[in-house]
Amino acid sequence: MTESTTVDLFVEETHSSGFSMKYKIKTVLYSEQSKFQHVSVVDTVGHGKMLLNDGLVMVTERDEFVYHDMIAHVPLFTHPNPKNVLIIGGGDGGTAREVLRHKSVETCTMVEIDEKVVEASRLHIPQTSCELDNPRLNLLIEDGVHFLKNTNEKFDVILVDSTEPFGPATPLFNIDFYRDVFNSLTENGIVVSQGESCFYESESQNSLLKILHETFPVVSVYNYSNLTYPGGLWSFTFASKGLSPVKDFDEDRILKSDLKFQYYNKDIHRSAFCLPQFMQNSVKEYLKG
Amino acid sequence: MTESTTVDLFVEETHSSGFSMKYKIKTVLYSEQSKFQHVSVVDTVGHGKMLLNDGLVMVTERDEFVYHDMIAHVPLFTHPNPKNVLIIGGGDGGTAREVLRHKSVETCTMVEIDEKVVEASRLHIPQTSCELDNPRLNLLIEDGVHFLKNTNEKFDVILVDSTEPFGPATPLFNIDFYRDVFNSLTENGIVVSQGESCFYESESQNSLLKILHETFPVVSVYNYSNLTYPGGLWSFTFASKGLSPVKDFDEDRILKSDLKFQYYNKDIHRSAFCLPQFMQNSVKEYLKG
Questions:
Q1: In what helix (H) or strand (E) does residue A264 lie, and over which residues does it extend?
Q2: B42 and B79 fall within a common domain
Q3: Least confident of A26-30, A146-150, B118-122, B196-200
Q4: Which end of chain B is more exposed for a tag (fewer CB within 10 A), N or C?
Q5: CATH number reported for the structural domain that contains residue B269 in this entry
Q6: CA A254/CA A252 separation, integer angstroms
């Protein structure tokens, strides 16, 4: 008599601080080496489907709403009338999905370097990829750095929805890139970027803020709590040609928009800019405006 | 010729959602079975010394400041003149350390059920246990539930610095306990309790808030970001006989106190009560006052 046996499958994200996060999974749905990185989608026991680039968790169905609410709605409710939005990266589609909920947005251009990320998300994570065929979306598979260097278009809001500052995203943590971002923004333009964590990645966070400080008249940083990023407390940087994310935020626009959110609301918009003291101490020299 | 070899040691905290957090460690410093739980202290590679009860991370030297700032200073800067403070639990000493920094506090009574937690912290984590011999501290090794049922003392602030609602802390998540808390508070009294996480533990969070809603005229909940608790976003509940943690908060008292903090500040005090939308939806029926 034999019993059927099963094996326990896990994915594990290991961090330089001798720390790792481990997820029990049911099955591997996608696993391909692209030109840039290893792209995989797994179905987890507790977090729904999960996208990983080079073994780092990018998105899970359970908590992707946090990241995508916070990268999109903070700048789009700060800018009084965002019409043209550019997303650099964001291949899973979640950021585009949230941007396109804003009726003022006429076109959203999304420049993702890695077609495998888009393919994996289209095939297995409709929750984030569901708006990739929206007629207002212009999806380009292209290097975002190259695109910005060569475009004549101007954008009201640019969202840098990137991975961490190694691998294919390395050139996105560079002052030349942010000079091109500045030049591609309209007069009231705003750029929001994936801004790392002050707990575990404060050097990367500070080097990005330093670049913004040298390039933009207004620089700020705001926090959100992600379930599946190490340490939980992660940040977006905010830089603009003049608009302040708190002083120029008009909460009535949320009410008038009729949009409902899972993470974002008017109180979260303001409170996200209130920084714990250790983080204030770490970043204060880079903030301005 | 032989080479010396080493083994990699880890502690791993496994969560019901098929998720675990794993820490590389250098050595085990303390490992004893008490009457209530297994108590251990390990020296980690990336987080300093770490205290675990029954394998759950309680405190690490790297981020204990977050929890201890937020359990102590939010109520102690809301109450206009806290003189007598009671801590239930808190055996590592970090909460007492922060309470005793307030000059208004004449006596701090700390009732910890498990002497092994105190012993382990005294022996190996002076960073948290450093004020356990402070003359203003009255440390009792006793069941906090029993203590509150039998005491005639009144406290301005009670801090329930407990582990999760299983094991020795189970009776602390009970309405009878909170009736005794109410009766042991002065007229302006406040109770703040370890309030679980809305990401992973929303049932426990809601059952605690329900108890408070049935017992106190003012009930609220506030968030903090802990590096080493699952999901990062964790909460404290706030209940009082009348004081509001935002409306009655006088930020000038922080300035006058001359105290400096690593996590807490006036903006964090207010913004901690701004809840993400999914959490507002989850807890709103229990909040009042």
A1: none
A2: no
A3: B196-200
A4: N
A5: 3.40.50.150
A6: 5
